[in-house]
Design brief:
Elements: E1 2-5, E2 14-17, E3 27-36, H1 39-46, E4 62-70, E5 82-86, E6 95-99, E7 103-105, H2 112-132, E8 140-144, H3 149-160, E9 164-169, H4 172-180, E10 185-188, H5 194-199, E11 204-209, H6 213-220, E12 223-231, H7 244-249, E13 253-256, H8 262-265, H9 267-282, E14 290-295, H10 299-308, E15 314-318
Parallel strand pairs: 8-9, 8-11, 9-10, 11-12, 12-13, 14-15
Antiparallel strand pairs: 1-2, 3-4, 3-6, 3-15, 4-5, 5-7
Helix pairs in contact: 2-3, 2-9
This protein binds NADP nicotinamide-adenine-dinucleotide phosphate.
Residues 38-40, 120-121, 124, 145, 147-151, 169-170, 174, 189, 210-211, 232-237, 257-259, 306, 309 line the site of NADP nicotinamide-adenine-dinucleotide phosphate.
């Protein structure tokens, strides 16, 4: 089979041939139909992701496909089943083997591209906003990095939970994408007077911070008492500055969130979340936005697009 291999931190990913892997007793083998890219793939390639496996590694954190073999002890899946899974890495390949417990069965109505694309971003948005930050209907949520994969999912999940959504992204085209996803107000982070513009809609109940840096610091400043700052990612390369005296005086929670910890930390919460989201998908309550599709042979172009910050929504790679 063909796979995209990264030999060492920061090496250029290269397409190579390798034998199709065989599942262990508790694993399934999957013929991959689609893999969705995430910002974390760029960190994986650099060796900077919190869950980077040993090199050489294969990027690609979430997949969908068809089960082609099952381990001796697997009773939950059969050859021919359509599944989706967060694999953590290994998705930019024709086949993968994974722990059977990570795979969720796909309803017939949900296609492979959508099911690969919805998992990490929507489960992050759902678990972070609803479980960790206790989002209630009517609350005001600011979403930073709103036109990226994580941001667009957060807009839809927050709207489905009855929130008022303020989306922050860079440039008119990206703001349009955020508005189409359901944002009530969209603000350009590159506009002159960005802080005043954002603060004119304050106070905020929750900041969903996938960017950090100045944008995170600016949004956090106008959280209301008992507000929550959700730390999702630092796409800007910087942490937000969250002043302890503000947090104390205003009873503000700073909440860390890491989706990749959930399969170990609380697999049931993860599976329940994905099952709820699959139902929302079938009911058309959420519509994962797939902006770009590439073949595996062109995976480096897909990664370059991700790096360029020009992508909107999810990037799919198909073998
Ligand atoms: N905690 C978790 O479990 C979890 C799960 C998923 C993602 N994340 C994190 O969330 C962040 C966003 O992920 P994603 O998949 O949505 O990525 P993405 O699609 O590439 O979006 C990243 C967004 O960040 C904004 N951004 C601002 N400054 C940036 C910079 N200097 N470089 C690149 N982007 C910048 C960009 O929007 P503008 O250009 O419009 O500002 C872009 O829309 C990443 O840090 C990722 O690791 C965390």
């Amino acid at each position: 089979m063909i796979l995209l291999s990264v030999s060492e931190p920061n090496a250029t990913p290269t397409l190579i041939s390798a034998p199709i892997p065989t599942p262990s007793d508790t694993q399934i083998q999957v013929r991959i139909a689609a893999t969705a890219l995430n910002f974390a793939d760029l960190l994986l390639i650099q060796g900077r992701y919190q869950d980077t496996p040993d090199f050489p590694l294969v990027p690609g954190l979430e997949i969908s496909g068809t089960v082609t073999a099952v381990g001796r002890k697997v009773t939950t899946h059969r050859i021919g089943d359509r599944i989706a899974a967060i694999t953590g890495h290994g998705g930019l390949a024709e086949y993968a083997v994974l722990d059977a417990r990570r795979a969720i069965p796909l309803p017939d109505a949900v296609d492979f591209h959508t099911s690969a694309a919805f998992q990490i971003t929507y489960a992050t948005a759902h678990l972070a906003l609803v479980r960790r930050a206790r989002l209630a209907a009517g609350e005001v949520v600011v979403i930073l990095g709103a036109a990226g994969g994580a941001g667009l999912a957060a807009i839809e999940v927050a709207k489905a939970a009855g929130a008022k959504v303020i989306a922050v992204a860079r440039g008119a085209d990206r703001l349009k994408v955020a508005t189409r996803a359901g944002a009530d107000i969209s603000i350009d982070s590159a506009a002159t007077g960005f802080a005043d513009l954002l603060h004119s809609h304050a106070p905020f109940d929750i900041v969903y911070d996938a960017v950090g840096g100045d944008a995170g610091t600016t949004a956090a400043r106008r959280l209301r008492p008992e507000g929550r700052h959700l730390l999702i990612g630092f796409a800007s390369g910087d942490h937000p500055t969250l002043k302890p005296n503000h947090l104390l005086v205003k009873n503000i929670d700073v909440i860390g969130f890491n989706i990749s910890a959930y399969p170990g930390l609380n697999p049931t919460a993860m599976t329940d979340s994905l099952t709820t989201l699959l139902r929302w998908l079938e009911q058309d309550k959420i519509r994962p936005h797939i902006g770009h599709t590439f073949r595996l042979q062109d995976a480096n172009q897909a990664l370059d697009l991700l790096k360029s910050r020009k992508a909107t929504g999810k990037i799919i790679v198909t073998p």
